[in-house]
Amino acid sequence: MSDVIGLHVQVQSLPDGDPEELAEFTGRLRAELLDLDVMAVDPVRDPAEPAQAKGLATVVGWLAIQLRTAEGLRAVVNAVGGWAGRTDRVVEISLGGDTLKVTGATSAQQELLISAWLARHAADT
To answer: What whole-number distance in Å separates Cα of residue 53 and Cα of residue 40?
Structure first.
């Protein structure tokens, strides 16, 4: 497969959370995802920031992931699900306009949701 699969992950802020805490949690998730067979896991640039700006303003809580295989996609989604369960966070994974909300659901419930979401994208990968 030569096509690149691109997806976005958004770590949801807690109701009483602050941006620094959200950035820290997002960084931890990014570090976990970089251990997988992915091409890139990058913070999402702030679209309001001019392209020629010297700083790299990013949108807190968002990651852009690039990978090449359906197996890699499954690994990323499973890793995000495990991370969300361990940290009691809500994470949204978006691919081609379809969004999967990963929460602290039981492992069996989460696996059913993940499998159904991945099946919808099997033909695309």
So the answer is: 22
Which residue is listed with tokens 């640039």?
Answer: 45
- The span from the CA of 109 to the CA of 107, in Å, is 6
Q: Give per-residue pLDDT as tens, 68-117.
A: 998 999 999 989 988 998 898 999 999 989 999 988 666 777 777 778 88
Number of domains in the chain: 1
Dist CA 73 CA 93 (whole Å):
11
Q: Is 25 in contact with 9 (CB distance < 8 Å)?
A: no
- Taking phi first (over 0 means left), then psi (-120 to 50 degrees means alpha), and beta for anything else, what does residue 88 get? left
What angle do helix axes 107-121 and 70-87 make, rounded to 10 degrees?
Answer: 150
**Domain at 105, CATH number:** 3.30.70.600
Residue 118 one-letter amino acid: L
Burial of 44 (0-12, 13-18, 19+ CB in 10 A): middle
Cα-based angle 92, 83, 113 (whole degrees, multiple of 5):
50
